[in-house]
Amino acid sequence: MTTPVRLVEITDENREAVCALRVRPGQERFVASVAKSLEDAATTPEGEPWYRAVYAGDEPVGFVMLSWDVPPGRPGVLGPYFLWRLLVDARHQGRGIGRAVLAEVVSLVRADGGTELLTSHQPGDDGPGAFYRKVGFSPTGEIDHGEIVVRLGL
Predict the structure, then answer these.
(1) What are the structural domains of the chain?
(2) Exposed, middle or buried, 136 (CB in 10 Å: 0-12/13-18/19+)?
(3) Would you give the end-to-end CA distance of the chain in angstroms?
(4) How distant, in Å, are the alpha carbons of 42, 69, 93 from that of 118?
(5) pLDDT for residue 23 is more than 80
(6) Which of 34, 31, 66 is nearest to 49 (CA)?
(7) Which of 131, 4, 127 is CA-nearest to residue 61?
(8) Three-state SS annotation for 68-110
(9) DSSP state of 39
(10) Distance CA 46, CA 105 (A)
(11) Which strands form 6-8's sheet, in the order they lie side by side?
(12) For residue 18, with 0-12 CB atoms within 10 Å meaning exposed, 13-18 middle and 19 or more buried, which class applies?
């Protein structure tokens, strides 16, 4: 069963709770913390960062960040739509939240005229590759900074 989610702007009121979200031990090597993600967004404006807290009911349960509508040919940035970070808090994993977040993101990207969503992941049996394959992403054949680039056609 999939848990319904809402994508919520990060504000001074919810920033601390969202930054407190953590993945399971051992998953830290696959996804950066929310605080590191917000820092990356601030220091990489060329990535056109767009990010939201993920809520289930009134509780923050995750974080998502994309490169949003990056102009073609921008050096060092995959796009135009690239799923930069997807984090589901350890206490809320296994409830379909990641899948629900992707459904929301896909709907928003489609509405913005996007025809594909890209992301990348580290290779490894314990990494997120199986999740991305299960939800329809397929390898592009590219490697970016040692990560496998995958594509979801919209």
Answers:
(1) 6-153 (3.40.630.30)
(2) middle
(3) 23
(4) 21, 12, 22
(5) yes
(6) 66
(7) 4
(8) CCCCCCCCCCCCCCEEEEEEECHHHCCCCHHHHHHHHHHHHHH
(9) H
(10) 20
(11) 6-8, 49-56, 59-67, 82-88, 116-121, 147-153, 138-144
(12) buried
| Residue written as token pair 């899948």 | 99
- Rounded to an integer, the average pLDDT of 57-86 is 94
For residues 49 and 78, which has the higher predicted lDDT (pLDDT)?
A: 49
Distance of CA 108 to the CA centre of its chain: 13
In tens, the pLDDT along 91-133 reads: 999 999 999 999 999 999 999 999 999 999 988 777 899 999 9
How many CB atoms lie under 10 A from the CB of residue 4?
Answer: 11
The residue with tokens 């009134």 is 58
Helix, strand, or coil (residue 148): strand
* One-letter amino acid of 23: V
The reply to whether the predicted model has a pTM over 0.70 is yes
pLDDT in tens, 28-42: 888 899 999 999 999
| Alpha carbon separation from 130 to 49, 59, 123, 133, 149 (Å, rounded) | 25, 27, 10, 5, 13
What is the structure's pLDDT at 2?
Answer: 67
